[in-house]
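Record pair follows.
FIRST:
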Amino acid sequence: MTSLAWAYSLIGVVIGSFLNVCVDRLPESGSLVSPPSHCPQCKRRLTVLELIPIFSYIFLRGRCRSCGEKISARILAVELGTGLMFLLIWIRFGQSWDTVLVSIIGSLLLVIGLIDLEHQKILNILIYPAIGFGLLLIPLTHIATPWSFLAGGALGFAVLFVIAVLSPGAMGMGDVKLTIFLGIIVGYPEIIIVLFLAFVSGGLIAGILLAFKKVKRKDTVAFGPYLALAGMITILYGDQILGWWLRRIG
């Protein structure tokens, strides 16, 4: 592992701290810059040392230094997770523009997935610009095969839209929009991998939650996090997964 890879992972940790701010404030239509980071309970502004990713959480033992309010473990998990994601992106794409683009896409998917997990909604303020960004990338990075990426978006839309129409409540329109974005990004046939991984992982986790009575059969379970995770796996390893599958059926 090169020093550049670890350095890029550290950048991911720092960006993860900002992504936590996005997850906290965007659902409430709050500003990302004002007010400065503070304790949600006692409203005290955090010091510079308290803003250091990972180490501040460990040093403070997961609690506010002033009022003792518990800091969400999600803060630490996102910082570590973003650092790991950036490391995997660097290992996969190295020192290239693809690394930058995939890092942006991965960060966006992380925020979308977490907000859906916590608030059961996929924000239009995120997904519409994401779709626009994906469409802009097609002529810039896929000039030789633009139709396969448009086809990916169309197929993703068609599958989830049909489910949303035939089974109201089983799938939200936010999930449909997210799948359009993922289809545009990964293209066809890779969008099939995204859908397969999302449905399998979502069904497996839902089954586990039902078995342990964490949710009831009529409860709504966010599907966005599974789509986001499946999309990121496909971006990183879709070629290898598709190649393995073709060899298996060949």
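SECOND:
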Amino acid sequence: MVRGDPSAGYRQILNLAVPAFLSLIAEPLFLVADSAVVGHLGTEELAGLGVASAALTTFTGLFVFLAYATTATSSRRMGAGDQRGAAQTGVDGLWLSVIIGVLVAVMLVALPVTVAGWFGASGAVAEQAGRYLRITGFGVPAMLATMAVTGVLRGFQDTRTPLVVTVVTFSANLVLNVWFVIGLGWGIQGSAIGTLVCQIAMAVALVSVLRVRTRGFDLSLMPRGITSSLRDGIPLLIRTLALRAALYVTTWVAARSGAITMASYQVTMTIWNLLLMAMDALGIAGQALTGASLGAGDTRRTRSLTATMTRWGLIAGVVVGVLLLAFHQLLPALYTDDPAVHRAVAAGLLVVAAQQIVAGPTFVLDGVLIGAGDGRWLSGAQVVMFLVYLPMVWAVHLWAPSDPAAAVVWLWVAFSGFMVVRCVILTWRAHGDAWMRTGA
């Protein structure tokens, strides 16, 4: 690549972002497939899946630093020419992911209904959520291992391998869900079994790829820096805790508003995750490219890439929002036959569509700062954002209308306020120079 050549920079962003985009939209499609199949079992099953999914994404999402931290560290070392050190980061992250995953799995498998209750579920909804969690809990170590290995592959600027593995396992998940739930009549447990099988298969495939990719590095498969990896990841863990706390309280308020509101919120949140994780592809490119350019000491290129990716994030947000607006009446039919849920989902998607304008730049800037190793600042800033959000969502809890459609709309209005605050604070930080620290 020729330094200063804008077209070369554009190609590099696209080479990372496009495969990451396809991989990321495949990840939430696991949940889309589950929701589409389980939704036809009944409203209680769909609401139970919503609570179980919120629990799984919360407990696994807390440790997304296993991907983010390994991406940032390995890309910096790659930029500085230390390929073996970059690979060792992945090995340490993999061991850490297995240890954490086993601890989380024990809790989910042993106390599934209790965990569902933490997310506001009760009665039949909590029971359905517990059935799903009792099975998928076994897959948590595999989910976290996938995060760690994906992170180091991104640091190697390889987003194609995770894409191939994800597409294959998603396709298998869709087939297994239809077979187990509808064909064999296993209910929500069938959906959980299909997802578990595919998550384990994904982890095995990616670990095998990492082993092959690092065969020539004289790399030890024994952990050497688990403590260091955990210490470096703590700021990102705090940042993620604050972000997940915002999602948790939103889910809690939805669950307290009744089964129809919770089921409707589950569908809109599933679509939100699909859209936002898709646009996060630019954020992942930002992590890898920012780490590499700062590792090589090239601050000018870092600034140029950040501006380009932020602009692309804004454009992507507008395009996605317009598309969602066009299909907001059609999408609910994929998930439910209940007219009340259909109406509430369609209303909520109008707000989700408008929110994409700020969501695109927000995810890009978050990725850039993670790639720069600015975790300490991000942790403090995210806590502030959460504290600002609490009064917004609490107001919805206190004065939410009885109409499920109106309740879902106000939940998304509050959460959109949270996204606006994130966008403003991250933009302010990116305009400064304090985060642009160079070296391996």
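COMMENT: The longest helix spans residues 259-295.
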